[in-house]
């Protein structure tokens, strides 16, 4: 009985210490935002993060790659639209594939971007979605990147 009490006390002390340490790590003051001159020089010094994929080099910062022409399907799409909104506007994609990102394997990660979905529209280009949390057990795919490529065939990648 005494050993059980010691283990319970030790467990409670450990959990309390974890909560205290976790709270302290989140209470750090944010850094001041850089001025416009500092931001422009900093952005010029840092190279953009890119990744090689089967469809070319993808900028890791999201956004729009290429020029969207007026009247095209992609001209109706905005960053942060859900996949359901996009399908309602421009129809089903030619191909669709999805994969987990490295963030999916981080213990206790409850943030965004744990999975990505890449859809291709023949003759238009590619749309990259990332997961965005909408609650404790809920996430939704939202447009992260639009890659305009009129030569897109929509054929699945060969591995």
Describe the structure.
The chain has 159 residues and is of the alpha+beta class. Helix content is 27%, strand content 29%. It is built from three helices and seven strands; from the N terminus they run H-H-E-E-E-H-E-E-E-E. The chain has helices at residues 2-26, 36-45, 83-90, and strands at 50-53, 56-59, 63-65, 95-100, 115-121, 125-135, 138-148. The strands form two sheets. A five-stranded mixed β-sheet has the order 3-7-6-5-4, with no helix packed on it. Strand 1 (50-53) and strand 2 (56-59) form a beta hairpin. The longest helix is centred in the N-terminal third of the chain and has 25 residues, at 2-26. The protein is elongated, with a radius of gyration of 22 Å.
Structural class: alpha+beta
Regarding quaternary structure, what we see is: single chain
Number of helices: 3
Secondary-structure element series: HHEEEHEEEE
The number of distinct β-strands equals: 7
The poorly predicted ranges are 24-31, 36-47, 52-58
Which range does the strand content fall in?
A: 25-35%
Share of helix, binned: 25-40%
Overall geometry: elongated
Rounded to the nearest angstrom, the distance between the terminal CA atoms is: 61 Å
Cα-atom radius of gyration:
22 Å
The order of strands across the largest sheet is 3-7-6-5-4
User: Overall mean pLDDT score?
Assistant: 75
Can you give keywords for this protein?
159 residues; alpha+beta; five-stranded mixed beta sheet; two-stranded antiparallel ribbon; elongated
């Amino acid at each position: 009985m005494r050993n059980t009490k010691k283990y319970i006390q030790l467990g409670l002390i450990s959990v309390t210490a974890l909560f205290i340490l976790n709270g302290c790590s989140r209470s750090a003051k944010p850094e001041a935002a850089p001025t416009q001159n500092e931001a422009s020089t900093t952005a010029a010094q840092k190279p953009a993060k890119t990744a090689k994929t089967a469809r070319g080099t993808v900028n890791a910062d999201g956004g729009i790659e290429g020029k969207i022409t007026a009247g095209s399907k992609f001209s109706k799409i905005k960053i942060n639209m859900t996949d359901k909104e996009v399908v309602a506007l421009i129809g089903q994609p030619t191909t669709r594939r999805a994969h987990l990102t490295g963030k999916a394997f981080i213990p206790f990660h409850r943030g965004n971007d744990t999975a990505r979905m890449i859809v291709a529209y023949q003759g238009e280009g590619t749309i990259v979605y990332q997961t965005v949390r909408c609650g404790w057990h809920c996430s939704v795919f939202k447009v992260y990147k639009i890659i305009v490529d009129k030569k897109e065939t929509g054929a699945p990648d060969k591995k």
